[in-house]
Amino acid sequence: MSNKVFILSKFSENRELLKAVYAGNLSQVTNLITQGADIQAKSRINDTPLHLAALNGHEDIIEYLLAQGAPLEVPNSNNDTPLHRAAAKGNVNAFSALVKAKADLSAKNKRGHTPLHLAASEGQLSIVNYVLALRDSASGPLVVRNENDETPLHRAALKGHAQVITALVKGGSDISARNKPGNTPLHLAAASNNNEEVVESLLHSVKGTTEYSSVINALNNIKQTPLHRAAHSGHFNVVKKLLEAGAAVNEKQHDGCTPLHLAITKGISNISIISTPLDAGSDIYKNDETPLHRAAMKGHAQVITALVKGGSDISARNEWGNTPLHLAAASNNNEEVVELLLHSVKGTTEYSSVLNALNNIKQTPLHRAAYCGHLNVVKKLLEAGASVNEKERDGYTPLHLAITKGISHISIISALLDAGSDIYNINNFGNTGAHHAAFNGHITLVESLLSKGFDVNRRNSKGNTLIHLAAHEGHSGMVQLLLTKGAKLDTYNTNEDSPVLMASRLGRTEIVLMLLKAGASPVNPSDGRSVLHAAARGNRLFTCKMILREFGDKVSINSEWKGLTADGYASAAGSAHLAWWLRKKRDSISIESPYRSKWLLCKGDYERSGLNIIKRASTISKRETDWLRKSIEDGTIEMHYMDTDGNTMLHAAVATKNVNTEKALLELGALPIACNHRNESPSTPTVEASKIHYIYF
């Protein structure tokens, strides 16, 4: 505990009193109190004069303050009483004076520590002995638990105070007591320090008794023994002491880890001390990982050497089919670890099967190293003869996986290509690594692959070249590069899309203009589809505007594809505004063309266009109502069209309570008495009122 005291009192005499007490100046203390200084004055952390006297062991001042009526149990900011302060500092005379004045030995501070807890934590043996000697005479319990259910023995074990432990055990402290996480004092001693003397003190108290085994192999709440705790903490001396004392070496904690697994995780190189009773590598935990897996994953070369010499199976597989070599390749960039693992099978029939072992998704160690960016390991595996063109479950080679990670893996990509990786290998989705790079916009990678001889116009299984994929994703820099490398502009994929048509549909305006300026055809000659059709179909207003502004002389706004102009496709895509803009643009250049009613309001279902007109009418917004009205008036739309159930647009508007459309249709002469195939006519108050104008026969 800190000796630093922050003194802040309201009155100067109180400040002077606290200073005098702290310094142990009894005469000055007496004078100040006589002059009116407050005997309960408080420092910044709410220590009273009695706290400070106890802290510094000023027994004479304590006796004077008590005689003047100073309260014994006033807590400071940490809820420490003066007795806590004396206990923590080991001031036994001050402690004795307070106890004789009936200070509460069971008082707890904010962490639930009694004075005995603090004495045990701080190794204050004289205080511990004093309290234990009071067992029969003191009022209240002497040994209680703090907020974590720890006894003073737990605290002494945690802090490594062997003499205090001996005293507490002799005084009757329960060596099997557990705190909230279920740890005994031995668990805490094993985890907190590398002092075998402390462990010896605890074990000695139960040696030769029936409790011995239950103490040394006690399980906490996650089924860890003290040996687990020592191994995990890397406390070699304690591990050795526990093993000598007969600790269970193969006990498994909640996740199946033995002490060996935990020791390996921490990189304890003296693994032989816990492998003596254990066939090294034979013990596995819940995901089927052996200690060798753990050592390989953590990159602990010395541990690997010990385990391999001990007979660990280098071909062992975990739950995911990974061998230790897979984990070493994926987890670190340490070629020494890979070398150690391979050296153990070098010159044997196992060598190739270990080097090119396939996990559950058919990845080799080289796949894992390439994907994780471990250049040194990739080089080591290639030097060792790893298969460079092996394909995993989805058809990816190590080269594919490295390319998917981008420019950061360029050195690995070069190493794989230099080792003979086939640049044209395709995965199960029909893509080469270069296609992946183009799709993801990795310009430097594509440039590197092209320099290695990759054909810039190579197609994937869907007929897409690199420039198709770059245009699709909007990578303008990639498109520029590919144009300089001889990429064909007017090449069509299996959907009859050229790069410029694809870019138009997706609204990649910069790329559309770039390709058209480079000489790309604005029209697919096989079916008449233009970039304007594609942009309208994709609802790309800005792209349409730029195409017409920059290339209006080459792209006709009046051209048709499958019987529709661009505004028809905008309507089919549900874009009333784009359709309106295109139609207005057509009108402004005095081109008369009958608007095709079956496309105006439908949403893409070309074969059932009439039915879609009915459905679309039910969702027309107020803004679109005027457009609908105009289209009916000029004959563009047939108002009385019926769907397959006999419903008209008025039926649809009424069914969805679209009042604007309903009103417009009635004003234009829609028949309110028209019945569908279920003999139902539209019915709302407005519609019913209009029916009186019709005579029924």
From TrEMBL:
SUPFAM superfamilies named in the record: Ankyrin repeat (SSF48403)
Coiled coil feature spans: none
ANK repeat windows: 45-77, 78-110, 111-132, 148-180, 181-203, 222-254, 255-289, 287-319, 320-342, 361-393, 394-428, 429-461, 462-494, 645-670
Annotated Gene3D superfamilies: Ankyrin repeat-containing domain
Entry keyword set: ANK repeat, Repeat
Name this polypeptide is given: Ankyrin
Native source organism of the sequence: Halocaridina rubra
